[in-house]
Every structure is written in structure tokens, then in C-alpha cells.
Amino acid sequence: MERSRVRRFGVRAGVCALGCVSLFGGSRVDAAPIGNAIELDATSELPGVVIFPARVPGARPITVLLHGMCGDAARACSHFAEQVTQTSNLVCPRASARCQGGGASWPDKGVAEAVEAAVMRAKSALPEVDETHGRTLIGYSMGAFRAVNIAQASAGWYPRVMLIGAKVSLDQARLTQNGTERVLLCAGSWDMMHDPMQREAERVRRAGFQARFLDLGPVGHAFTPSFAEYLPQALSWLSGT
User: How far, in Å, are 16, 36, 94, 227 from residue 9 at the CA level?
Assistant: First the structure.
């Protein structure tokens, strides 16, 4: 098992794609992380990754979350950890392109390989993992664009995909060929991505693909306390329950 360090992320911080502020004037909202996370720092050869282990015993599946532009993996995942870790290990790769004001962004190339390397590092740090039913992939803002690219070439690793706050274009044929079965698109009603994402979900649904749009309520391009109210139904739909 890879040598790692466990850190309690006690500093509260919010995440957002553009300067960590809502695009519609609202301020960022902080989220408290749940329990202890395992942080594996980046090396000269391997990407950094933050892991929130499942809080239930036995082999559990993996949920991968890609943070937004100039975001932070631990902070982004803190909005998901409490609920996701009830059933799954939450794996949060760190982007490699450092931002001048803090955080990091995803490069144009090599993201799929870096994410897979981060997942492999996470698996080496977890006691048990169940991948018999594949993984769930979540992308926020810039991370959503990268998540689409990964899902459309993942060869079956990601049957469940959740995309938040990004004007994505889905290729349902490629998604189907690569084993993606369900895609959930989400945005707040004050987010400029709301209407395009709603239309895209309807377009691919009409084409016969399992897609759905989830309105996150009267919020902009940022996580707020109300996000926790919507996450259970999002995860339930993704799992087919």
C-alpha cells in the first residue's frame, strides 16, 4: 500500500469555477468536510488525489469527482462526501495546472490518463473496492467538460455520469459505445448554464438515451447549503433506484 497521510480538512472553504463566486452576485458558501480524508500528494510522475473512504464496511464502489477551474479537490468533494460515502468511496483527483490565485485547473490534454492514475493510487490506499458495476463520474463546471470526454472514451468504466454547471454537448452514440448508461445534468436556475443543460438533456433523452435534467433551485454557479437537499435524488437516479 502506498505511503500516505491522513488529514482532517478543518479549514472551511467553498468551490466555484470562476473565482469561487456565484456568477450572479451570490457569495460562495462553505461546506464542512466529513471525517478523515486520505491525501496523496502529487509526485513527479503521479497526480495528487484526495480520498474520502466509504463509511460502511466491505468492498464498496468508487465515485470520481472532477473539480472546477482553479478549484481544490478536497473542498469540492466536501460538498458530496457526507452522502456519497454512505455507499461509495469518493475519489477526488487534483488538477495539475496551478492557478495564480490558488487552486488548479485541468489541462487540455492527458486528463483521462491522470484521472485513471489518481484512481489507481486511491485503490492502493483503500482496503476494499468493488468495481463489478463500474464507477460513477461527477464533473463540476470545467470538470464536467473533462468528465464528458472521459465518459465518451472510457470503455465501460463509467456507466453513471453527473454533470454540474457546464454547457456540455453529448454524443449519445459514443456514450453508449463506451458503456455509459445514465447521464444527469444539473444547474441552478440562476446559472447561465441552466437552460442549455436542460435542452441538452431533453435532446439526448428524445434520442433514446437515459438522460435527465435536475434543477438545483434558485442558486447561481456555486455550491450552497441547498445542494445537499438535491444530492440524494441525484444519486438515487444515477443508481437506478
Answer: 18, 8, 15, 20
Q: Residue 65 and residue 223: Cα distance in Å, rounded?
A: 14
Pairing state of beta strands 49-52 and 89-93?
A: antiparallel
Could you report the per-residue pLDDT of 197-237, keeping only the tens digit for each?
999 999 999 999 999 999 999 999 999 999 999 999 999 99
List of long-range contacts for 152-159, beta carbons under 8 Å, 24+ apart? 152/178, 152/180, 153/112, 153/178, 154/112, 154/178, 154/179, 154/180, 155/179, 158/64, 158/134, 159/133, 159/134, 159/135
Pairing of strands 104-105, 211-215: unpaired
Show the domain range for 133. Answer: 5-239
pLDDT tens per residue across span 168-177: 999 999 999 9
Using the structure block, give the residue that is written with the C-alpha cell 462526501.
81
Q: Which residue carries 465518459 as its cell?
A: 151
**How many domains, in total, are found in the chain?**
1
CATH number of the domain within which 168 lies: 3.40.50.1820
Instruction: Please state, in angstroms and rounded to a whole number, the distance separating the CA atoms of residues 51 and 36.
Output: 9
Q: Please provide the DSSP assignment of 86-153 as one string.
A: TTSEEEEEPPSEE-TTSSEE--SSSHHHHHHHHHHHHHHHSS-B--TT--EEEEETHHHHHHHHHHTT
